[in-house]
Design brief:
Blueprint: E1 36-40, H1 44-55, E2 59-63, E3 75-78, E4 83-86, E5 92-93, H2 97-106, E6 112-113, E7 120-124, E8 130-133, H3 156-160, H4 162-166, H5 174-177, H6 183-197, H7 206-217, H8 221-224, E9 226-229, H9 233-247, E10 251-253, E11 258-264, E12 267-273, E13 277-279, E14 285-288, H10 292-298, E15 308-317, E16 328-332, E17 338-342, E18 345-350, H11 361-376, E19 386-396, E20 416-418, H12 431-445
Parallel strand pairs: 1-2, 1-14, 2-10, 7-16, 14-20
Antiparallel strand pairs: 3-4, 5-9, 6-9, 7-8, 11-12, 12-13, 15-18, 15-19, 16-17, 17-18
Helix pairs in contact: 1-9, 1-12, 2-9, 2-12
The structure holds flavin-adenine dinucleotide.
Flavin-adenine dinucleotide binds next to helix 1, strand 15, strand 19 and helix 12.
Length: 448
């Protein structure tokens, strides 16, 4: 990777001005061909914005605070396991349109893998029961009327309750709309809410679950087919995106933290990084694709969600033979919620894990291994080599109070656009939402 160093000397920061107008910007005028788009943040949202811009011939300069791209969706080499692992397991769906568009641009759609059909396998760790949810082909979801395609002990009516989410008002939680006393709650609704909203059903915003449920189960089996990045998140999403950008002449700067956005009236006129400062010319545009906490520091005028929820992942190096035909498994009745197998690494995810994230790593490893051993019929001892990854700000708190705080793509500054999974995409914090937000910001910067 050709990472170009900045040579511009640092300058004093001029006094920052608040915008004269608080009204949202009108669409930016079509970009002058010679302008540069500065994209700040190389998570999925920033990468998607940069890739779309570069594919349309824009000159792109990408700035990232960390020494690597990917943000909350990345791989790293772990010394203890001697393997490259992901910060956390990520599940995608074949019907994630923006994700597929992004992967098609960067040529890595074929790095995703999953079962041949839409099949979500589950194991109940308390009872030992196993089943698979198997949505059918075609838009009419007749699978809910077939006992062999749904969770044991559930009825078609339990799934038709999804329609109650469509009519949920902005203040409703999932538990307000779905009967938590029925067996279908533990066997279907709770795993879905945790996976999609990273929050307990008693606080999770019902309104945010609806678009994903329609995406998973309302567009037929092909769209619902689950996929994982079989060779790791960076191999699918980050490395090919950076190669694509480099091939289009983009400038990529890591370890380049944005410290201040200088703005006057309706325009941003300079970006101040830790050691350098960039003037923003009239034809330039800026896309900020940073998480809410950074955004609140950079631009306090922009409304951002305030709370966050954690996700904990445990990765274990397993020498025993592992099932080859089971890329992932939903777990009920334990600490872990989802189990993924990649080569000789078994990884488990715990969502809405704020309390667990306070527990010592070796204790977490013991609890998670107990679940894995039961699910895969492996010996409970000795504990294999492990690595615990705690993402304390994995997503913003996807609860009703936070939804009005999601910001729009356009800002009061005509040359500045926002991206990030936390912006007002109408979707939960997912790769799909992040990619969609990046595309929207890129379109804004292009004047589209
Ligand atoms: C453990 C875990 C599991 C998940 N599971 C799933 C899943 O199964 N399916 C799914 O679809 N989604 C999942 N997600 C969510 C998904 O990872 C995120 O929605 C997505 O990666 C967010 O991308 P983003 O670009 O919006 O933000 P980020 O990834 O946070 O990117 C923002 C970038 O901005 C950089 N930055 C911050 N401040 C500055 C600054 N001042 N200057 C320059 N750069 C800055 C950061 O370093 C970062 O690289 C999961 C997330 C986690 C953490």
């Amino acid at each position: 990777m050709n990472i170009k160093a900045m040579n511009t000397p640092a300058m004093n920061t001029p006094a920052m001005n608040t915008p004269a107008m608080n009204t949202p910007a009108m669409n930016a005028p079509a970009m002058n061909a010679r302008g540069t788009v500065h994209v700040v943040g190389a998570g999925i949202a920033g990468l998607a914005a940069a890739v779309l811009l570069a594919s349309r011939g824009a000159r792109v300069s990408l700035h990232e605070a960390a020494g690597h791209g990917g943000g909350r969706c990345r791989s790293f080499h772990d010394e203890v396991l001697g393997r490259t692992i992901d910060n956390g397991n990520h599940l995608l769906l074949a019907g994630n349109r923006a994700v597929m568009k992004f992967l098609d641009h960067i040529g890595s759609r074929d790095t995703l893998a999953g079962p041949a059909d839409a099949s979500f396998a589950f194991a109940d760790l308390r009872t030992g029961e196993r089943w698979s949810l198997r949505p059918n082909a075609g838009r009419l979801p007749w699978w809910i009327f077939s006992r062999s395609r749904r969770a044991p002990g559930t009825t078609a009516g339990d799934y038709l309750a999804v329609l109650r989410l469509a009519r949920a008002d902005a203040r409703a939680t999932v538990a307000d709309r779905i009967n938590v006393g029925r067996p279908a709650f533990a066997r279907f609704w709770e795993p879905m809410v945790l996976a999609v909203l990273n929050a307990d059903a008693h606080e999770a915003a019902a309104r945010l679950l609806w678009p994903v449920m329609t995406e998973i189960f309302g567009r037929g089996a092909e769209a619902a087919r689950p996929l994982i990045a079989a060779k790791g998140l960076s191999r699918s999403f980050v490395e090919p995106a950076l190669r694509f950008l480099e091939s289009r002449g983009a400038t990529i700067r890591f370890n380049h933290r944005l410290r201040a956005v200088e703005r006057q009236g309706e325009h941003v006129h300079a970006l101040e990084f830790v050691r350098t400062r960039h003037d923003i010319a009239k034809a330039d545009r800026v896309v900020l694709a940073v998480p809410p906490a950074s955004m609140a520091e950079l631009l306090p005028e922009i409304s951002t969600p305030r709370g966050s929820r954690a996700i904990v992942n445990g990765h274990f190096l397993v020498k025993a033979p592992l099932p080859a035909d089971l890329p992932f498994l939903g777990l009920i009745g334990g600490t872990a919620h989802w189990l993924f197998i990649r080569g000789d690494i078994v990884s488990v995810t715990v969502s809405a894990a704020d309390a667990l994230a306070e527990v010592a790593n070796d204790e977490i490893a013991r609890r998670l291994w107990a679940d894995i051993a039961r699910a895969l019929s492996l010996p409970a001892a000795p504990l294999p080599p492990w690595r615990i990854v705690k993402e304390k700000r994995a997503t913003f708190a996807q609860i009703p109070e936070e939804l009005p705080r999601r910001a729009k793509t356009a800002t009061p500054w005509r040359n500045l656009f926002l991206a990030g999974d936390w912006t007002d995409t109408g979707l939960p914090c997912t790769i799909e939402g992040a990619a969609r937000s990046g595309f929207a910001a890129a379109e804004g910067a292009l004047g589209g």
